[in-house]
Structures are given as structure tokens and as C-alpha cells.
Design a protein that fits this description.
This protein has 19 helices and 24 strands.
Length: about 650
């Protein structure tokens, strides 16, 4: 629902940052409690501080959006329910949500609070936005990687259908290298999941590109800013800033302009909000942007995605001259503009509602309380996903219950390789650059009589319904608990691939009456990139010539970069160096209804051998030591 003047939405990772945001003129702030938010490393707010903060914001007519934008496990659902109820009692105006379990719980314990779809939901199409509205959301936070034209198409599409769904977008702050909600790098490299609010930002560490040992060094001799310390950061983007384009964004009809930074200092929050307010008023100056850069930047700012101009110019890191904001005079001047503590005495914000304890409604009445039968002893059918029809070995026809192939496969060739259409699933890409191209391809799937379509996000579920094909959940849906599985089932999803950020004990906690499988093999896709390092620095010739492209980390591990199918030149994937191998542990995987072998860079011969090993593990040799990973299957997960 468009408004004439868009809201300025500020980060509040601490009480001090909240005070700075309000003083600077923010219309709304977003903040998190002590858990279940994507910035668990921020100071955040305990129960007492939350009530005080929300009361302070009400007094100053500033709206409050509480972040519950992480994935939850089954054992955490009662605590999540209590946290949602408590936040509602504190007077939160809206909840920012990722997990569909949280969506269901909000309906049950806090139906009066507005629901906003987090950018962690990876919504980047009109279908995704429309699906959220059907589910009762009042706002969608759009993916950072959208172009201005794509944003306009979504806003216009909502307006043309008279759908009063608000749109929110990031206009300033850090750029993740990966599409939000689709990053597993931190979980696999350091055991800290970004989808669980614990991202360790390994993308900011050195990564060098194959054939480009000095990635960050410009090829021109005149670039004096480049140095050896900048040479190997092929996964680090500059911070986003669209503040100069704010009048244009307002004309697009975007409702809320969001500033990233719940981990940043209060001075940054104040300066960013003031600059955003000036930009909205048309008075932003170059001096304002210079001050912002001094307080925090990574070698400057970029608007590459918005302008549909991705490339080398988008990459950057923190340099010595912009670390720690050493301009103390500037910081002191900024601090003089806002209070550093909540008022006390008669001027203190009223938080009479907080008595030290919130009594949540009886959890026994909630849907999370239904007991499950054991998932042990499942049949474990073998499913195999291939990057192309050319990769498919003859063993797949004989050994795999389901074969998964890209959506743009020539389905008329199935018979020539011995595949029956009713044993095949088409796979939708995790990022869709032009959604209009999908419906004709889905119509071909329907006409070919395929068993269904593997979907990767919430917008693709509604697309499948429109096309009359059965959606099957892929790993991109990030399924981690029972309530979310039930929500997806209610939306028409017939089977699910659990998140590979789950371990086996958590997988066993999922409902026994639903068909749920797991990824049991593969160079797992750890990142989904919208700004390809290879294309940015050296162009696409290396990939097109068939030469493999790798990123090498500081320890020497080589991460394959794959660009294929509908995501070619649009959204390549960064793969794990070592494949997940579990065929010798197959007996311990009997909590899964199917084992999905996710083939990407393997040869046809290797695919056949691996299929045989998983079907007949007793006849196969164990994986070669040092050449594989067990992933997170047997690790404790926070």
C-alpha cells in the first residue's frame, strides 16, 4: 500500500542505537530480543529493556518492528511462542519473520501484530509478494539484489491487482555477497549459521579467484589505492547506498526505506538516519555522504544491483583509513545530538505493563504440541539431481526413484535415455531474473506429465499452483521444524527436502506423517551469488571455454564456482570444496524418506558409481579419508 512519503526505518541493535535513531528522525526502528533474530551478536534487548524501548518509541511516535527472522528447531518452538507473545504484550507494531513456524505461531498467540516477510525469505518476484499477502503478511522486505526496474515491476504488479501489501527495501548498509536466506558458508566453515543469526562473515576473509591472484588490484597502474592487503577478497562487496536515489525510490512507490546496521555503533545509526531524512527532503549533500563513509564504509559505496550494473567496481573491504572511525571530532559531534540512556524519574517512558513475568497462553492449546511418531526405519528411496541431461548415467534410470533435472531441460529426450516422465521432477532455480519466462516452461512440464517441480522459495509454490503442477520442496526453502513443514503442506507442497543445516537428531524430530528427505551427497551450494567474481574481473570466457573456476581461501581450499542452466550469467553458486558423503552411514539415515544425491560438477561416470554406492553401501568401499565431509549431520548445532 503505497504512501506519498516513504518511511525511514532504522536499525537498533542496542538501547544506545535506538536512542540515536529516534533523535535523528527515524519513523520506525527494527530491533531484536535476546534470541530468534538474525543479529544474535548484537547487544539486543532483554525483556525489561524491550518494554522500556517500546514505551520510549511510543512516546516519540516511532513504530517498532521486532525481528524474529531466523530458523527455529522443534525444541525451540515453545520459547519462540513465548517470545512472540511477550513482544506483542510489549506493544510491538510488527514482526519481521522468516520461518513459517513463526508465521503460524503469530496467528495463534499474537494475531493483532502485523507480519512482515523478512529479506531472509528470498522474495524477489511478484509471485513471492502475492503469496505473502495471501498468507496474511502486510509487508514484504525485498531482496537487496533487485534492480530498480524489478522493484518497479513488483510495486506496479501489486498496485494493478489492488493488493495492499507494503514494500520495504534496503537503501544503506552492508551488502551480503550471497542472496539473503540462501547462504550456508558460515555454517559449514565455522559452525555458525547465518540463518540462525550467528553469521561469522567468512566472506570478508581472503578469497582469491582462479587465475587472478590480485583480485582487488585494478589493472591500471594509476590506481594508487590498491595494495597487497586488498588483493584477495573476491567475496567482499562494498556497502550499499541508495541515499542519493531516495527521491527516485519514493517515485517508485516503495513504502519503507531500510538502513542496515544492527551490529554497528550508535554514531553510525544517527548519521545514516539523518542522511536518509535529508535525502528524502532533497537536501542531501556530498559532505553528508563523506561523513557516512568516514564513519563506516568498505572502500566507498555501491548502487550496482539497483542500477543493473554489477561488476568489479562493487567489491571492497575495510581499509585502514576508514576503520574504527578514527575521526574522533566527528564522532564527538554526532554523539552530542542524542541521549545515551533512557530518561529516568518523571520523564521515564511508562512501561507499567512489564511486571517481570509474562504469562503466555497455555502452550498445550497451540499446534506445536502435537506429538510425533518416530521417524526411524523410513524406506529411504534414492533421488538424484543432475545439472543437465548429459550428466545423467544409465544407473540413474535403474537405481533412482526420482530424477531431478533443470526446468529448461528438453523433456522430449526423456524416452531416449530410458526415463519415464512420472519419475522425473523439474527443478526451479533459486534466483529468477525474469519470472515471466517460467510459466511457459512450467506448462511444458505439465504437458510432459512430470511428477512435479522442485521449488526453492515461497513464490515458486504459487507459480506451480497457477501452472497446475505439484510442488516439491527443495533445500532452498530452509525447512528446519515441524510447524513449518505443516505450513508448507497447507500451501500444497507434497514432499520436502530438509535444510542441510540440520543434524540427524533434529531431522528425527520432524513429523512422521510427512514425506521428508535429506541431501545425502554433493558439493553443497554454500552461496548464491548475484555479482559473480569471475565475470566481474575476467569475464565469462573461462567458464564458456569449459575451464573450471575456483575461489581459493586462505587455507588453500578450492571452492568451485558453478554457472549453469537458467542461473547462467545470472546467479552462479559457490560450492563446498569437499563433497558430502554418507553412503557408509546409510543405516543412520533411516529418518529420511528419501536421500537426495545433489550432483553438480561430477562426471557421468562418477555419478553412476555414487548412485551404486548409495544403493548398495555394503558392497562399496568407504569414502577416501580427507576427500569428503560429513557436513553437519553428526555435529551439535546451536
Amino acid at each position: 500500500m503505497s504512501q506519498s512519503v516513504p518511511e525511514i526505518l532504522a536499525p537498533a541493535g542496542s538501547p544506545e542505537a535506538l536512542l540515536a535513531a529516534v533523535a535523528a528522525g527515524a519513523d520506525a526502528v527494527y530491533l531484536g530480543g535476546s534470541g530468534f533474530n538474525a543479529r544474535r551478536g548484537a547487544k539486543n534487548f532483554d525483556s525489561a529493556a524491550l518494554f522500556q524501548a517500546l514505551a520510549y518509541c511510543r512516546k516519540h511516535e516511532v513504530k517498532t518492528h521486532l525481528t524474529f527472522n531466523t530458523l527455529a528447531f522443534d525444541r525451540e518452538l515453545p520459547a519462540l511462542s513465548r517470545a512472540l507473545y511477550e513482544a506483542a504484550q510489549a506493544g510491538a507494531d510488527a514482526f519481521i519473520l522468516q520461518d513459517l513456524a513463526a508465521v503460524r505461531l503469530v496467528r495463534e498467540v499474537a494475531p493483532e501484530v502485523q507480519r512482515h516477510g523478512s529479506t531472509q525469505m528470498s522474495v524477489h518476484t511478484l509471485s513471492g509478494a502475492l503469496q505473502l499477502y495471501e498468507m496474511g503478511f502486510s509487508r514484504v522486505v525485498l531482496a537487496r539484489e533487485l534492480t530498480g526496474r524489478q522493484i518497479q515491476e513488483i510495486v506496479n504488479g501489486l498496485r494493478d491487482r489492488s493488493v495492499p501489501l507494503e514494500t520495504e527495501m534496503f537503501v544503506h548498509g552492508a551488502h551480503c555477497m550471497c542472496v539473503s536466506g540462501q547462504c550456508y558458508l558460515s555454517a559449514f566453515l565455522g559452525g555458525r549459521s547465518g540463518n540462525r543469526g550467528l553469521c561469522a562473515q567468512p566472506c570478508r576473509l581472503p578469497f582469491s579467484l582462479t587465475g587472478e591472484p590480485n583480485f582487488m588490484r585494478e589493472k591500471t597502474a594509476s590506481n594508487k589505492a590498491a595494495s597487497s592487503s586488498l588483493s584477495d577478497h573476491a567475496l567482499s562487496l562494498k556497502d550499499l547506498s541508495l541515499l542519493p536515489q531516495l527521491p527516485q525510490l519514493a517515485a517508485l512507490g516503495v513504502d519503507s526505506l531500510k538502513i542496515e546496521g544492527r551490529m554497528k555503533r550508535p554514531e553510525y545509526v544517527y548519521a545514516a538516519v539523518r542522511a536518509a531524512c535529508k535525502a528524502r527532503e532533497g537536501t542531501l549533500s556530498s559532505k553528508d555522504m563523506e561523513e557516512l563513509s568516514k564513519i563506516f564504509s568498505r572502500g566507498g559505496f555501491t548502487d550496482g544491483f539497483f542500477q543493473n550494473n554489477t561488476g568489479f567496481h562493487m567489491f571492497g573491504i575495510r581499509q585502514r583509513e576508514n576503520q574504527d572511525a578514527k575521526n574522533q571530532e566527528l564522532l564527538s559531534r554526532i554523539r552530542s545530538h542524542y541521549p545515551t540512556a533512557f530518561p529516568v524519574g518523571k520523564d521515564a517512558p511508562s512501561s507499567d505493563l512489564f511486571s517481570g513475568q509474562i504469562l503466555c497462553p497455555d502452550l498445550g492449546q497451540l499446534s506445536l504440541s502435537a506429538p510425533h511418531q518416530s521417524r526411524r526405519g523410513r524406506p529411504m528411496a534414492l533421488w538424484a539431481r543432475f545439472a543437465s541431461l548429459e550428466q545423467l548415467p544409465q544407473e540413474a534410470v535403474k537405481l533412482a526413484r526420482r530424477v531431478v533435472l533443470p526446468l529448461d531441460t528438453d523433456w522430449g529426450r526423456l524416452a531416449s535415455v530410458g526415463l519415464s516422465p512420472d519419475s522425473v521432477l523439474a527443478e526451479l532455480p533459486r534466483w529468477v531474473q525474469h519470472e515471466a519466462l517460467l510459466l511457459p516452461l512450467l506448462e511444458k512440464v505439465r504437458c510432459a506429465g512430470l511428477a512435479g517441480v522442485m521449488v526453492q522459495n515461497i513464490g515458486q509454490v504459487s507459480l506451480c499452483r497457477r501452472a497446475g503442477v505439484m510442488p516439491v520442496g527443495g533445500f532452498g526453502m530452509n525447512l528446519t521444524n515441524s510447524l513449518a513443514a505443516k505450513e508448507w503442506k497447507d500451501l500444497g507442497v507434497s514432499a520436502f527436502t530438509a535444510s542441510f543445516e540440520m543434524n540427524l537428531p533434529k531431522l528425527r524430530a520432524l513429523p512422521s506423517d510427512l514425506t521428508i528427505g535429506m541431501v545425502a551427497y554433493g558439493h553443497l551450494p554454500l552461496m548464491l551469488l548475484r555479482c559473480c567474481p569471475q565475470r566481474a574481473k575476467g569475464g565469462c570466457k573461462r567458464c564458456q571455454s569449459g575451464n573450471p573456476v575456483f575461489l581459493r581461501d586462505r587455507k588453500g581450499a578450492r571452492f568451485p564456482l558453478q554457472c549453469s542452466g537458467l542461473q547462467k550469467k545470472v546467479a552462479p553458486e559457490l560450492l563446498n570444496p569437499l563433497p558430502l558423503c554418507l553412503w557408509d552411514k546409510k543405516k543412520e539415515l533411516d529418518c529420511a524418506d528419501f536421500l537426495l544425491l545433489h550432483f553438480t560438477i561430477e562426471s557421468k561416470k562418477d555419478c553412476g558409481a555414487l548412485l551404486t554406492a548409495y544403493l548398495y553401501p555394503e558392497k562399496a568401499s568407504p569414502p577416501k579419508e580427507g576427500a569428503f565431509t560429513r557436513g553437519l549431520c553428526f555435529k551439535p548445532i546451536d
